[in-house]
Amino acid sequence: MRRREAAIAAVLSAVWLAGCATSALDMAPERPDRPWVPATTETGEIIAGEHQAPPTAAGYVLPANPALGKVPVPPSVDAVRRYSLSELIDLAESSNPATRIAWNDARRAALVAGVAESAFLPNITATAIGGYQGSSGHQTAVGTGFSNNSSLDGTVSALSLQWLLFDFGERAAVVDAAKQGSVISNIAFTAVHQQLIYRVTLTFYNHAAAQARLATATQSLKNAQNVQAAAEDRYKHDIGTVTEVAQARQGTAQANLAVVQATGGAEDAYLALITAMGISPLTKIKIAEVSGRKLSPSMAAPVESIISQALARRPDVQSAYAAQKASLANIRAAQAEFKSKFFLSANGSYSSGGLNVTSLPSGGQQPPTVNINGNHLGSSIFAGVTVPLYDGGTRDAQLARARAEADSADTRLTQVRNDAVQQIVFADNALHTSLSAYSASQALEAAAQTTFDSALAAYRNGVGSITDLTLAETQLLQAKNGATDAYSTALSAAATLALSTGSLGAAPE
Predict the structure, then answer these.
(1) Would you state the pLDDT for residue 73?
(2) Handedness of CA 478, 480, 481, 485 (dihedral sign)
(3) pTM of the entire structure?
(4) What b-and-e string marks burial along 290-326, b requiring 16 or more CB atoms within 10 Å of the CB?
(5) More confident residue, 368 or 451
(6) CATH homologous superfamily of domain 97-384+405-500?
(7) CA-CA to 234 of 20 to 30 Å: which in 122, 174, 280, 477?
(8) Where are the domains of the chain?
(9) Angle, CA 359 vertex, CA 358 and CA 365 arms, to 5°
């Protein structure tokens, strides 16, 4: 009967536990086509592990958590000062979350190397155990009753030392690999800063180009208004026609639309710059201009003279090289697993305890009492060697994997170098092309300005046509925008070349 009752209890317990596990499905959405409504606290925070609440009319909208609705605080900036590119980069490096994440990654990798180095030191452990045991009982025999009380207490303290003395360089190889991992993480930290500088630089130049296009559109609107005034003046003096006035007003309307579009483009460029910096989009900051920076073909040096130096300092090349060295260290560590290890072990212990036993007869006689106390001090020292004999091929597999990873690291280094050369050549070509395009756009802008001024003067004097003037006005706007884009493209190409050569963070301008 007892066995049957125990079996029934076990089955019921198993069924109850299974029901607890499957009941957790109540936390998931009930159906694929019905919304999930989580249980929340009074402040709106979702309660983990709670069953979902009854569906409401909110649909597929999560409850609002006020604690998450805090807008990032904008950094403190000077509202009057116009920030240059280098100052924006400094602000971005101190505010962008990516730099702090990369910094923490580098610190974590350094701590991994520190943990690996600690394997050379002995491992000392202190242990203390205390215990107490008590019992009491009453027995009756031949009309006589006895009460027995006993207690046992004691403590044990131990100090242990484990020290691996020699392992044929396995720990040194592990430390070397960990240090190379720290180098890789530090290189990644530098690369994050270079990428941040690059993004801020490009968006800064794009913002400058957008501001220049806005200024060009504004000037084009003034030119269109001057053309319209000339057409209306000619019409008042019975020289022009209604068609000319209509065409001039159409040109003014188109110029006004261009100003609206350029204004939106400038606002988008500003938001892109703030986003690249990693600060709050609500930040209001004034941006300095870059129109004073001169461009010349001398900015682009022969590509053959910069490739070798660029390969020597590019973060991806140095990272691939550190990964190759780490893979070689892993091979040495795997090879050391086949060899013996010499160790030292020492232990020291101290124990103390007491035993109390009391027997009390029911007749009221004096009880016999036994008290025993004692302590013990012990120590031991061992020196030994472990020799690996058989592990089912685990060490062979680890060594083969380490060699495969080393081969991949070596191949990856070669690939990274080849990719780096291609990027440098492409960036150098883009810089040469953009500088040539900028020189050509300057000449085009000057010619278009002369054409427009001549056409406007001729039209005012009654010897030109509104068609020629409108065409000249359109071509002038296109030429100015082309020069602006060419200038921005050349600056961006220079930044791209600096990034591809690994020198962008040296002295940002």
Answers:
(1) 75
(2) positive
(3) 0.81
(4) beeeebeeebbeebeebbeebbeebbbbbbbbbbbbb
(5) 451
(6) Outer membrane efflux proteins (OEP) (1.20.1600.10)
(7) 477
(8) 2-68, 97-384+405-500
(9) 120
